[in-house]
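The instructor's notes for this session suggest beginning with a concrete chain rather than abstract definitions. Hand out the sequence below and ask the class to guess, before any prediction is shown, which regions might be ordered.
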Amino acid sequence: MAKKIKLMIAGCTGRMGRMILELLPEYEGFTLVKLTEKKGHKDIGKEYSLVNKKSDFNLVISDSFPKNINEVDVIIDFTTPESTIDLLEYSKDMDISHVIGTTGFTADQELRISEHSMNKVIVKAGNMSLGVNLITKLTETIANALDAEFDIEIVEMHHRDKVDAPSGTALMLGEAAARGRAVSLENVKDFDRTKVRQRRKSGNIGLSSLRGGDVVGEHSVIFAGSGERIVINHIANNRKIFARGALKAAEWAPKKQPNLYNMIDVLGL
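After discussion, reveal the predicted structure:
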């Protein structure tokens, strides 16, 4: 029998943490060993089954830096950028793989994640669903095939409580479009057209964000040319698609050498 992967869920009471724990009993390859929340969280010290009455997991929720963390094989982390960086720093000398679904990192934080990946396996993705990663690959392919006559616009919508914008998925799609055109997204991104009154700059990639209701996630990539448009849409109806992707990444990560990977790597696309 194959050795089970010892799993820790960081941010266990959040939307994604709860969804992963709901699905976890379907996966026989894991042993859940730790559940954490940020320091000062009201549920620290409580058994998870008392916090979430629908769950049978009786593990006590600990703070972000649990004792005996070296017992863990893989951490699935859907928290905040600051918490993710702190957890990477705390476990930097340990043989622990990290699956990071957190979004909203600064350029400096992205660099620090990249530095940590030289010594440990990190799977990081703005979106872990199969469908989104398929359209990410498709976006790169179409952007590569079309010239700059086609303007690229990315539109995303999420629930009213999402604080980072554009979404991590929108940025992932933007990066894919930029790769297809062999440019840096940093040099061609267009987040805000309200500050200056001028026509669209050829070659720019626009990203627009909408927030409202309980929308799980909707993304459109629009290639607008003269006389025609190509539109790729992805609609997420529930968070199970992200949770399954995160668990797939957690199964995949322990077999790999230290590096920074994404879901395209995990899915073999």
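Then share the key points. The mean pLDDT is 94. Residues 113 and 163 are 21 Å apart (CA to CA).
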